[in-house]
Specification:
With 244 residues, this protein is of the alpha+beta class. It has eight helices and 14 strands. It is elongated and about 60 Å long.
């Protein structure tokens, strides 16, 4: 039986988007709202402009499960560039310090990655969406302000070093909600003694949802409402996929 407030023009469900670089998560939501002619759309977990990959959009009644979807494990592929520390902990930031990169062995690098396996605490970067007195930290950072941030408990469930070509290290990491991959890259660089920053990032998975096969930004922008509607997972399908 349909609820009394059922509206056939409102799309309920989840849309998987494979985000392109050089755009914010808000940009993706704004285009989705225009294409679908629907205001009630949110996203599950911000991706920085430089990052690509899976951005989960929740539509209509799908916004009610937003917190559930955000709480699930995430998987990323990324690149750390050693020798340069930046104020944002990624390649888009101002270089604060440059150091010579040692001739590290795979064993030395793996030992550092192992030290960030399991449960530990991370201090959120100033360039993040966490709010201080209602103001996102990144806005305070733009004003040149730095405030104290409380460390938060995070977990790395597994990792893989996929390429070492110093000063670059490619990796894959499976982590908990609230994990900052840029901080992970920064701290690995600090532990090696030469500093480093995150120079590439792609979210490949969130829970049971994969970036592969997601709607591209071009498709989202250029397709018709009905074409994108066909790509939306209804709430029943989402529940089955999650095993709920």
């Amino acid at each position: 039986m349909r609820p009394s407030n059922f509206n056939p023009d409102i799309i309920d469900g989840v849309l998987l988007v494979d985000k392109s670089p050089d755009m914010t998560s808000h940009d993706v939501v704004a285009v989705a709202r225009r294409t679908l002619n629907q205001k009630k759309i949110g996203h599950c977990g911000t991706l920085d402009p430089m990052a690509t990959g899976l951005l989960i959009l929740v539509l209509g009644r799908g916004t009610k499960i937003q917190d559930l979807l955000m709480a699930e494990q995430k998987e990323y592929e990324g690149t750390i560039t050693l020798g340069e520390t930046t104020h944002t902990q990624d390649r888009e930031g101002e270089v604060l310090e440059t150091k010579e990169v040692g001739d590290y062995s795979e064993e030395q690098i793996r030992e550092v990655f192992e030290s960030f396996l399991g449960d530990f605490e991370q201090t959120p970067p100033m360039v993040s969406a966490i709010k201080q007195d209602g103001v996102p930290l990144y806005k305070l950072a733009r004003q040149g302000k730095t405030v104290e941030r409380k460390p938060r408990a995070v977990t790395v469930f597994e990792y893989e070093i996929t390429r070492i070509a110093l000063p670059e290290i490619d990796f894959r990491v499976v982590c908990s909600k609230g994990f900052y991959v840029r901080t992970y890259a920064h701290e690995i660089g600090q532990s090696l003694g030469c500093g480093g920053h995150l120079s590439a990032l792609r979210r490949t998975r969130s829970g049971k949802f994969l970036a592969e096969g997601g709607v591209t930004f071009t498709e989202l922008k250029e397709s018709t409402r009905d074409e994108i509607r066909e790509r939306v997972l209804n709430l029943s399908a989402v529940s089955k996929l999650r095993g709920a």
